[in-house]
Specification:
CATH topology of the largest domain: Rossmann fold
Structural class: alpha/beta
Low-confidence stretches: 2-8, 211-215
Number of helices: 12
Shape: elongated
Strand content: 15-25%
Mean pLDDT: 89
CATH class of the largest domain: Alpha Beta
Largest sheet: 7 strands, mixed
């Protein structure tokens, strides 16, 4: 199949690597898998062997038609459904197709898996991690540099790594060399998984009020408070964190955070401890 540069298409055909991705996703028999950008269906083939049901979302109409033909038996048996459209608009796609993915609140499980378009990596992470119906896990092929930032391989955290680790456990699944893709991208890729996704850690944070948020008067959610603190902490990377947050030394001493620490030095547990320590909006 001919690739479209505008859609960030880079096909992966090495079966050994494809099996590695699916094994790393830890898909269970009862799981529904939402696959992002199935492309030629090379990864879809192995996901179907593990999952109870697969919903594959492909933006390229020609590829979607190709997949309909390639997997016509799986589609006929209702094990696979191909949706044509943008993964970032999945709610509308599901509504049109009269489909639902299992709700975690109802005891259902679904996983997100895919060799995703690199130009929307951040948007996909944000959309599904912040969703009311979060997946239990997500496993993506991303740029190697992005994967290393997420796990903070150099020991330095970032807004990206903290934003992901706030919701789940990030795990590095190995490097995929650029030569494994068609066409060959300019950089190497890597497998990254986020497991045990939930919003439970935010429950311990008390929102601050009153607040005018995005033009609406109301109560701030624990998530909003947490990320407000994180963004402020990383606002000036070269400054000491205590100056960025403009808080008293007493809070740092109580939480055993070094006075000369910078935002990149704190682990996600430290950020949650900081968020729980704020009692008054004036402190921000």
């Amino acid at each position: 199949m001919k690739t479209k540069k505008s859609l960030g298409q880079n096909f992966l055909r090495d079966e050994k690597i494809l099996k590695k991705i699916v094994d790393f996703a830890q898909i269970e028999k009862g799981d529904t898998v939402v696959e992002v950008g199935p492309g030629e269906g090379t990864l879809t083939k192995f996901i179907l062997e593990k999952a109870k049901r697969v919903i594959a979302v492909e933006k390229d109409e020609l590829l979607a038609k190709f997949l309909q033909e390639k997997f016509k038996e799986e589609i006929k048996s209702s094990k696979l459904k191909i949706l044509t459209g943008n993964i970032l608009e999945i709610e509308n796609l599901l509504k049109i197709a009269k489909l639902k993915i299992p709700a975690r609140a109802g005891g259902g499980n679904y996983c997100l898996v895919g060799n995703i378009p690199y130009y929307i990596t951040g948007e996909i992470f944000r959309k599904f991690l912040e969703s009311e119906n979060q997946p239990k896990s997500l496993t993506f092929v991303v740029q190697k540099e992005v994967a290393e930032r997420i796990i903070a391989r150099d020991g330095k955290e970032s807004i990206l790594s903290i934003s992901i680790k706030a919701y789940g456990e990030a795990e590095f699944g190995g490097v995929i060399k650029a030569g494994s893709f068609v066409p060959r991208p300019k950089v190497d890729s890597a497998i990254i998984a986020v497991r045990d996704i939930s919003k439970k850690r935010f429950d311990e944070i008390t929102p601050l009020i009153p607040l005018t948020l995005r033009g609406k008067q109301g109560k701030q959610t624990p998530e909003e408070l947490f990320f407000e603190i994180v963004r402020k902490g990383f606002a000036h990377k070269r400054k000491l964190l205590i100056r960025n947050l403009n808080i008293s030394k007493d809070i740092f001493e109580k939480l055993e955070i070094p006075e000369k620490a910078r935002a990149e030095d704190l682990k996600v547990e430290d950020w949650f401890a900081l968020a729980k320590s704020f009692k008054d909006r004036k402190e921000l």
